[in-house]
Design a protein that fits this description.
Elements lengths: L5 H16 L4 E2 H8 L3 H10 L4 E7 L5 E7 L9 H4 L3
Antiparallel strand pairs: 1-3, 2-3
C-alpha cells in the first residue's frame, strides 16, 4: 500500500470522529457534508480503507438502494486506526 499522506491521515481522522458520533451509519453525501470534504474524496477514502469502513445497503420502502457507511469496528479510533490498516 502507498504511504499515507498527512492530508489523507487528517481526513481519515475527521471521518472516524464523525462515524463515532453516528454509529447507525451515514450516507456518503452526509458524511462528506459533515466532514467538509468533497464527496468523491470521502468516497475514495471509504473504498481505499475497507479495514476501517463498511458499506451496506438500506432498502427504503420505495426500493431505493442507498449505501450507508459505518465503522467496521466500534473500537477503531483516531489513535489506533493505523494498526487496523496495517501501518
Amino acid at each position: 500500500m502507498a504511504k499515507m499522506t498527512d492530508r489523507e491521515r487528517k481526513n481519515i481522522v475527521k471521518i472516524i470522529k464523525i462515524m463515532k458520533e453516528n454509529p447507525t451509519g451515514l450516507w456518503i453525501r452526509e458524511l462528506a457534508r459533515q466532514s467538509k470534504l468533497h464527496m468523491e474524496t470521502a468516497r475514495r477514502i471509504i473504498q481505499k480503507y475497507p479495514e476501517l469502513f463498511e458499506e451496506y445497503a438500506d432498502f427504503t420502502p420505495y426500493r431505493i438502494n442507498l449505501k450507508l457507511i459505518k465503522l467496521k469496528n466500534e473500537n477503531i479510533s483516531e489513535k489506533n486506526f493505523d494498526v487496523a490498516i496495517g501501518l
